[in-house]
Amino acid sequence: MELILKYFPNLSKTQIAQFEALYALYIEWNEKINVISRKDIENLYEHHVLHSLAIAEIIKFQPDTSILDVGTGGGFPGIPLAILFPESTFVLIDSIGKKIKVGTEVSTAIGLKNITLKHLRVQEEKAKYDFVVSRAVMPLGDLVKLVQKNVSKKHKNALPNGLICLKGGELHHEILPYKNIAELYEVSDYFKEEFFKTKKAVYVPL
Question: What is the pTM of this model?
């Protein structure tokens, strides 16, 4: 939790309480339904919560912004972002019902009011959103094709509406088709821990 406050020192009491509650909740639910590697659960705040919040270093969502989290798993990056941006709305989808159950139970337990979790594939989601976010779900080209239909044409943020995804490793080939429009961000520019050295975020306006 100190790690979150190190980079986000201006959280409200409610936000601090919500972030603090995540550890015990994910420990409890991960025992029943494995959404985070058992070896990695100790690193929840660094590897999952703070990593999700890298998106907040790229864009500060305006109130009433709508965000779709594709392939959310147990709620990442959607739940940390929903805590940080209480005036924006988040819809988290995943094709695996058990994972959606974990995310639903966690978000309910911490009292998140700006979040909806749905068990469905991205192909089935028809609604429009300002932004789509994801964390290493599939190759960039595949994701762009699937979510183009979900991005609204009405812009209200500093960045035009589009896709922001968190990825790791070598992304040159994935970004090549979008090289004229995509922005690549090094997460290590924001967070100095060793874990983030190979982590990147990609923004593609759609």
Answer: 0.97
